[in-house]
Amino acid sequence: MSGSLKNKMRHSVTDAAPTSVVRDKVVEEEPESELDAYSKEVLSALMKDSLPPTPNNFSLYFDRLLEDKSQNTRNHIVSILELEDNNEDENSIILEQSLKQGFSSIKNILGVTANIYKNMSLMTKILEKRKQELEESSDSHKTRDVAASLESDILKLGAILKKQSSSMKTMYDDTAKIIKNVENETIFDNQYGVYNKRYLMAKIEQEIELISKFKHKSSLIMIELSRELRKNVNNEKAVMLMTRTIARLLLKTSRRSDIVAHYGNGVFAMLLKHTDIENAKRASERLCDLVSNSNFFLADREIQLKISIGITDITENHSVEEIIVSSMNGIEKAYENPNLDFAVLLRNI
Questions:
Q1: Residue 225 burial (CB count, 10 A)
Q2: 113: which DSSP letter?
Q3: Boundaries of every domain in the chain
Q4: Which numeric CATH code is attached to 194-344?
Q5: Could you write out the DSSP letters of every residue in 201-255?
Q6: Minimum mean pLDDT among 117-121, 126-130, 141-145, 172-176: which range?
Q7: How many CA atoms lie within 13 A of 107 on its CB side?
Q8: Average pLDDT over residues 280-308
Q9: pTM
Protein backbone atom coordinates (compact mmCIF):
# COMPACT_ATOMS: atom_id res chain seq x y z
CA MET A 1 0.00 0.00 0.00
CA SER A 2 1.45 3.36 -0.97
CA GLY A 3 2.26 5.98 1.65
CA SER A 4 -0.11 8.38 -0.04
CA LEU A 5 -3.03 5.93 0.31
CA LYS A 6 -2.16 5.22 3.97
CA ASN A 7 -2.14 8.92 4.70
CA LYS A 8 -5.52 9.33 3.08
CA MET A 9 -6.95 6.49 5.17
CA ARG A 10 -5.38 7.93 8.33
CA HIS A 11 -6.88 11.32 7.61
CA SER A 12 -10.22 9.69 6.83
CA VAL A 13 -10.34 7.88 10.17
CA THR A 14 -9.14 10.94 12.05
CA ASP A 15 -11.77 13.11 10.41
CA ALA A 16 -14.51 10.56 11.08
CA ALA A 17 -14.03 10.49 14.85
CA PRO A 18 -15.00 14.11 15.54
CA THR A 19 -18.04 13.64 13.30
CA SER A 20 -19.13 10.69 15.44
CA VAL A 21 -18.70 12.75 18.59
CA VAL A 22 -20.71 15.60 17.11
CA ARG A 23 -23.48 13.21 16.22
CA ASP A 24 -23.50 11.79 19.74
CA LYS A 25 -23.83 15.31 21.11
CA VAL A 26 -26.75 15.99 18.78
CA VAL A 27 -28.57 12.91 20.08
CA GLU A 28 -27.95 13.90 23.68
CA GLU A 29 -29.22 17.40 23.14
CA GLU A 30 -32.59 16.36 21.65
CA PRO A 31 -35.38 18.34 23.36
CA GLU A 32 -37.20 16.45 26.10
CA SER A 33 -40.82 15.49 25.55
CA GLU A 34 -43.73 17.37 27.05
CA LEU A 35 -44.47 14.44 29.34
CA ASP A 36 -40.83 14.30 30.53
CA ALA A 37 -40.85 18.00 31.36
CA TYR A 38 -44.17 17.72 33.17
CA SER A 39 -42.98 14.71 35.18
CA LYS A 40 -39.98 16.72 36.38
CA GLU A 41 -42.32 19.56 37.35
CA VAL A 42 -44.45 17.16 39.39
CA LEU A 43 -41.38 15.76 41.14
CA SER A 44 -40.17 19.27 41.96
CA ALA A 45 -43.56 20.16 43.44
CA LEU A 46 -43.45 17.07 45.66
CA MET A 47 -39.99 17.96 46.92
CA LYS A 48 -41.04 21.57 47.50
CA ASP A 49 -43.92 20.38 49.71
CA SER A 50 -41.60 17.97 51.54
CA LEU A 51 -43.57 14.92 50.45
CA PRO A 52 -41.89 11.60 49.64
CA PRO A 53 -42.03 10.83 45.89
CA THR A 54 -44.02 7.64 46.35
CA PRO A 55 -46.11 6.34 43.42
CA ASN A 56 -49.31 7.40 45.19
CA ASN A 57 -48.13 10.94 45.94
CA PHE A 58 -46.70 11.32 42.45
CA SER A 59 -50.05 10.25 40.96
CA LEU A 60 -51.94 12.72 43.15
CA TYR A 61 -49.73 15.66 42.20
CA PHE A 62 -49.67 14.53 38.59
CA ASP A 63 -53.46 14.94 38.41
CA ARG A 64 -53.62 18.09 40.52
CA LEU A 65 -51.01 20.11 38.62
CA LEU A 66 -52.49 19.03 35.30
CA GLU A 67 -55.55 21.19 35.99
CA ASP A 68 -53.47 24.36 35.60
CA LYS A 69 -52.06 23.37 32.21
CA SER A 70 -53.41 24.45 28.82
CA GLN A 71 -56.14 22.41 27.19
CA ASN A 72 -53.73 21.16 24.53
CA THR A 73 -51.26 19.97 27.15
CA ARG A 74 -53.99 18.25 29.14
CA ASN A 75 -55.35 16.53 26.05
CA HIS A 76 -51.89 15.36 25.03
CA ILE A 77 -51.01 13.91 28.43
CA VAL A 78 -54.45 12.39 28.99
CA SER A 79 -54.20 10.65 25.61
CA ILE A 80 -50.98 9.01 26.82
CA LEU A 81 -52.55 8.00 30.13
CA GLU A 82 -55.47 6.37 28.34
CA LEU A 83 -53.04 3.87 26.87
CA GLU A 84 -52.44 2.52 30.37
CA ASP A 85 -54.81 -0.16 31.57
CA ASN A 86 -53.68 -1.39 34.96
CA ASN A 87 -56.31 -0.40 37.49
CA GLU A 88 -56.62 -2.93 40.31
CA ASP A 89 -59.81 -1.33 41.66
CA GLU A 90 -61.49 -1.72 38.27
CA ASN A 91 -60.47 -5.37 38.22
CA SER A 92 -61.95 -5.81 41.71
CA ILE A 93 -65.17 -4.19 40.56
CA ILE A 94 -65.45 -6.55 37.61
CA LEU A 95 -64.83 -9.50 39.95
CA GLU A 96 -67.52 -8.31 42.36
CA GLN A 97 -70.03 -7.92 39.56
CA SER A 98 -69.28 -11.43 38.31
CA LEU A 99 -69.70 -12.89 41.79
CA LYS A 100 -73.03 -11.18 42.25
CA GLN A 101 -74.23 -12.39 38.87
CA GLY A 102 -73.19 -15.90 39.84
CA PHE A 103 -75.09 -15.60 43.09
CA SER A 104 -78.17 -14.49 41.18
CA SER A 105 -77.88 -17.53 38.91
CA ILE A 106 -77.65 -19.85 41.92
CA LYS A 107 -80.81 -18.32 43.36
CA ASN A 108 -82.59 -18.88 40.07
CA ILE A 109 -81.50 -22.52 39.95
CA LEU A 110 -82.75 -23.10 43.46
CA GLY A 111 -86.02 -21.41 42.58
CA VAL A 112 -86.53 -23.71 39.59
CA THR A 113 -85.71 -26.75 41.72
CA ALA A 114 -88.20 -25.65 44.35
CA ASN A 115 -90.89 -25.31 41.71
CA ILE A 116 -90.17 -28.83 40.42
CA TYR A 117 -90.51 -30.21 43.93
CA LYS A 118 -93.79 -28.36 44.46
CA ASN A 119 -95.14 -29.74 41.20
CA MET A 120 -94.16 -33.27 42.18
CA SER A 121 -95.89 -32.82 45.51
CA LEU A 122 -98.99 -31.63 43.71
CA MET A 123 -98.81 -34.64 41.39
CA THR A 124 -98.67 -36.97 44.40
CA LYS A 125 -101.83 -35.40 45.80
CA ILE A 126 -103.57 -35.70 42.47
CA LEU A 127 -102.59 -39.37 42.21
CA GLU A 128 -103.96 -40.00 45.68
CA LYS A 129 -107.22 -38.42 44.68
CA ARG A 130 -107.41 -40.49 41.50
CA LYS A 131 -106.69 -43.65 43.48
CA GLN A 132 -109.60 -42.95 45.79
CA GLU A 133 -111.84 -42.38 42.79
CA LEU A 134 -110.79 -45.72 41.29
CA GLU A 135 -111.43 -47.54 44.55
CA GLU A 136 -114.89 -46.05 44.81
CA SER A 137 -115.90 -46.70 41.19
CA SER A 138 -114.37 -50.16 40.48
CA ASP A 139 -113.43 -53.39 42.16
CA SER A 140 -110.90 -54.30 39.51
CA HIS A 141 -107.74 -55.58 41.20
CA LYS A 142 -105.73 -54.79 38.11
CA THR A 143 -106.76 -51.15 38.16
CA ARG A 144 -105.81 -50.88 41.83
CA ASP A 145 -102.47 -52.58 41.17
CA VAL A 146 -101.67 -50.09 38.40
CA ALA A 147 -102.57 -47.17 40.63
CA ALA A 148 -100.46 -48.59 43.46
CA SER A 149 -97.53 -49.09 41.14
CA LEU A 150 -97.77 -45.52 39.88
CA GLU A 151 -98.03 -44.27 43.44
CA SER A 152 -94.88 -46.17 44.39
CA ASP A 153 -92.97 -44.74 41.46
CA ILE A 154 -94.09 -41.22 42.23
CA LEU A 155 -93.15 -41.60 45.90
CA LYS A 156 -89.70 -42.85 44.94
CA LEU A 157 -89.25 -39.94 42.57
CA GLY A 158 -90.43 -37.56 45.21
CA ALA A 159 -87.95 -38.97 47.73
CA ILE A 160 -85.10 -38.58 45.25
CA LEU A 161 -86.09 -35.00 44.46
CA LYS A 162 -86.40 -34.20 48.14
CA LYS A 163 -82.92 -35.53 48.82
CA GLN A 164 -81.47 -33.63 45.88
CA SER A 165 -83.27 -30.48 46.91
CA SER A 166 -81.85 -30.80 50.42
CA SER A 167 -78.34 -31.18 48.99
CA MET A 168 -78.82 -28.17 46.74
CA LYS A 169 -80.10 -26.12 49.68
CA THR A 170 -76.98 -27.03 51.68
CA MET A 171 -74.76 -26.01 48.78
CA TYR A 172 -76.79 -22.82 48.37
CA ASP A 173 -76.39 -21.90 52.05
CA ASP A 174 -72.63 -22.51 51.87
CA THR A 175 -72.38 -20.39 48.72
CA ALA A 176 -74.52 -17.66 50.28
CA LYS A 177 -72.13 -17.44 53.24
CA ILE A 178 -69.16 -17.09 50.88
CA ILE A 179 -70.92 -14.43 48.82
CA LYS A 180 -71.95 -12.60 52.00
CA ASN A 181 -68.33 -12.50 53.13
CA VAL A 182 -67.33 -11.15 49.74
CA GLU A 183 -70.07 -8.51 49.89
CA ASN A 184 -68.80 -7.40 53.29
CA GLU A 185 -65.47 -6.64 51.63
CA THR A 186 -66.81 -5.05 48.45
CA ILE A 187 -65.84 -1.53 47.43
CA PHE A 188 -68.35 -0.96 44.64
CA ASP A 189 -71.92 0.32 44.57
CA ASN A 190 -73.74 -1.54 41.78
CA GLN A 191 -76.71 0.81 41.77
CA TYR A 192 -74.74 3.94 40.82
CA GLY A 193 -71.49 2.59 39.41
CA VAL A 194 -69.22 4.30 41.99
CA TYR A 195 -67.45 3.25 45.18
CA ASN A 196 -69.55 2.40 48.22
CA LYS A 197 -69.76 3.88 51.72
CA ARG A 198 -67.46 1.30 53.27
CA TYR A 199 -64.68 2.12 50.82
CA LEU A 200 -65.22 5.87 51.31
CA MET A 201 -64.92 5.64 55.10
CA ALA A 202 -61.74 3.59 54.83
CA LYS A 203 -60.17 6.07 52.41
CA ILE A 204 -61.04 9.08 54.60
CA GLU A 205 -59.49 7.30 57.59
CA GLN A 206 -56.39 6.63 55.53
CA GLU A 207 -56.23 10.24 54.40
CA ILE A 208 -56.45 11.48 57.99
CA GLU A 209 -53.39 9.39 58.85
CA LEU A 210 -51.49 10.73 55.84
CA ILE A 211 -52.37 14.32 56.72
CA SER A 212 -51.17 13.72 60.28
CA LYS A 213 -47.84 12.58 58.92
CA PHE A 214 -47.22 14.89 55.97
CA LYS A 215 -49.37 17.95 56.88
CA HIS A 216 -50.88 18.46 53.43
CA LYS A 217 -54.41 19.70 52.68
CA SER A 218 -57.32 17.51 51.53
CA SER A 219 -61.05 18.15 51.29
CA LEU A 220 -64.35 16.30 51.24
CA ILE A 221 -67.46 17.36 49.35
CA MET A 222 -70.91 15.79 49.68
CA ILE A 223 -73.39 16.10 46.83
CA GLU A 224 -77.08 15.46 46.49
CA LEU A 225 -79.80 16.11 43.94
CA SER A 226 -81.68 19.31 44.81
CA ARG A 227 -84.50 18.57 47.26
CA GLU A 228 -86.65 21.19 45.59
CA LEU A 229 -86.16 19.40 42.27
CA ARG A 230 -87.08 16.08 43.87
CA LYS A 231 -90.25 17.62 45.26
CA ASN A 232 -91.26 19.20 41.96
CA VAL A 233 -90.69 16.04 39.96
CA ASN A 234 -92.46 13.84 42.54
CA ASN A 235 -91.67 10.69 40.55
CA GLU A 236 -89.58 8.03 42.27
CA LYS A 237 -88.36 6.40 39.07
CA ALA A 238 -87.45 9.74 37.50
CA VAL A 239 -85.58 10.82 40.64
CA MET A 240 -83.61 7.56 40.53
CA LEU A 241 -82.64 8.17 36.89
CA MET A 242 -81.60 11.74 37.65
CA THR A 243 -79.53 10.56 40.61
CA ARG A 244 -77.76 8.04 38.39
CA THR A 245 -77.07 10.85 35.93
CA ILE A 246 -75.46 12.84 38.75
CA ALA A 247 -73.23 9.84 39.55
CA ARG A 248 -72.06 9.65 35.94
CA LEU A 249 -71.32 13.38 35.89
CA LEU A 250 -69.31 13.08 39.11
CA LEU A 251 -67.15 10.43 37.49
CA LYS A 252 -66.80 12.57 34.38
CA THR A 253 -65.52 15.64 36.22
CA SER A 254 -63.34 13.86 38.78
CA ARG A 255 -59.59 13.33 38.60
CA ARG A 256 -58.10 9.87 38.65
CA SER A 257 -56.94 10.43 42.23
CA ASP A 258 -60.39 11.51 43.47
CA ILE A 259 -62.61 9.02 45.27
CA VAL A 260 -66.24 9.17 44.11
CA ALA A 261 -68.59 7.17 46.32
CA HIS A 262 -72.26 6.73 47.17
CA TYR A 263 -72.68 7.53 50.84
CA GLY A 264 -76.34 6.49 50.98
CA ASN A 265 -79.87 7.62 50.10
CA GLY A 266 -78.74 9.26 46.87
CA VAL A 267 -76.02 11.32 48.60
CA PHE A 268 -72.58 11.14 46.99
CA ALA A 269 -69.14 12.07 48.24
CA MET A 270 -65.89 13.09 46.57
CA LEU A 271 -62.65 12.79 48.50
CA LEU A 272 -60.29 15.37 46.98
CA LYS A 273 -56.77 14.41 48.00
CA HIS A 274 -54.09 17.11 48.23
CA THR A 275 -56.78 19.73 47.57
CA ASP A 276 -57.31 22.75 49.80
CA ILE A 277 -60.66 24.46 50.33
CA GLU A 278 -60.17 27.00 47.55
CA ASN A 279 -59.47 24.28 45.02
CA ALA A 280 -62.37 22.26 46.41
CA LYS A 281 -64.62 25.27 45.77
CA ARG A 282 -63.31 25.46 42.21
CA ALA A 283 -64.07 21.78 41.73
CA SER A 284 -67.58 22.31 43.12
CA GLU A 285 -68.20 25.23 40.78
CA ARG A 286 -67.06 23.16 37.85
CA LEU A 287 -69.34 20.32 38.91
CA CYS A 288 -72.35 22.60 39.40
CA ASP A 289 -71.83 24.11 35.95
CA LEU A 290 -71.57 20.67 34.38
CA VAL A 291 -74.77 19.50 36.06
CA SER A 292 -76.74 22.67 35.32
CA ASN A 293 -75.85 22.31 31.63
CA SER A 294 -77.25 18.77 31.61
CA ASN A 295 -80.96 18.51 30.98
CA PHE A 296 -83.19 15.59 31.87
CA PHE A 297 -86.28 14.70 29.85
CA LEU A 298 -89.35 13.41 31.66
CA ALA A 299 -92.18 12.65 29.21
CA ASP A 300 -92.75 16.02 27.46
CA ARG A 301 -90.96 18.02 30.18
CA GLU A 302 -87.35 19.19 29.98
CA ILE A 303 -85.88 19.47 33.45
CA GLN A 304 -82.66 21.28 34.32
CA LEU A 305 -80.66 19.28 36.81
CA LYS A 306 -79.49 20.96 40.01
CA ILE A 307 -77.40 19.80 42.95
CA SER A 308 -76.43 21.03 46.39
CA ILE A 309 -72.91 20.58 47.75
CA GLY A 310 -71.33 20.73 51.19
CA ILE A 311 -67.56 21.26 51.48
CA THR A 312 -65.28 20.64 54.43
CA ASP A 313 -61.60 20.14 55.11
CA ILE A 314 -60.09 16.90 56.34
CA THR A 315 -58.01 17.35 59.47
CA GLU A 316 -56.05 15.05 61.70
CA ASN A 317 -57.93 16.20 64.82
CA HIS A 318 -61.37 14.97 63.77
CA SER A 319 -62.88 11.57 63.16
CA VAL A 320 -64.27 10.30 59.87
CA GLU A 321 -67.81 10.68 61.19
CA GLU A 322 -67.22 14.28 62.30
CA ILE A 323 -65.79 15.20 58.90
CA ILE A 324 -68.75 13.65 57.06
CA VAL A 325 -71.24 15.39 59.35
CA SER A 326 -69.48 18.70 58.72
CA SER A 327 -69.79 18.23 54.97
CA MET A 328 -73.46 17.22 55.29
CA ASN A 329 -74.07 20.37 57.35
CA GLY A 330 -72.51 22.29 54.48
CA ILE A 331 -75.34 21.02 52.28
CA GLU A 332 -77.87 22.29 54.83
CA LYS A 333 -76.09 25.66 54.87
CA ALA A 334 -76.32 25.85 51.08
CA TYR A 335 -80.09 25.29 51.25
CA GLU A 336 -80.43 28.28 53.58
CA ASN A 337 -79.46 30.59 50.72
CA PRO A 338 -81.35 29.97 47.44
CA ASN A 339 -78.51 31.61 45.52
CA LEU A 340 -75.92 29.10 46.75
CA ASP A 341 -75.21 25.76 45.12
CA PHE A 342 -72.55 24.91 47.68
CA ALA A 343 -71.34 26.01 51.09
CA VAL A 344 -68.21 25.48 53.19
CA LEU A 345 -67.99 24.35 56.81
CA LEU A 346 -64.46 24.06 58.16
CA ARG A 347 -63.41 21.52 60.80
CA ASN A 348 -60.29 23.38 61.86
CA ILE A 349 -62.18 26.31 63.34
A1: 22
A2: H
A3: 3-81, 89-184, 194-344
A4: 3.30.70.270
A5: HHHHHHHHHHHHHH---EEEEEEEE-HHHHHHH--HHHHHHHHHHHHHHHHHHS-
A6: 141-145
A7: 8
A8: 91
A9: 0.68
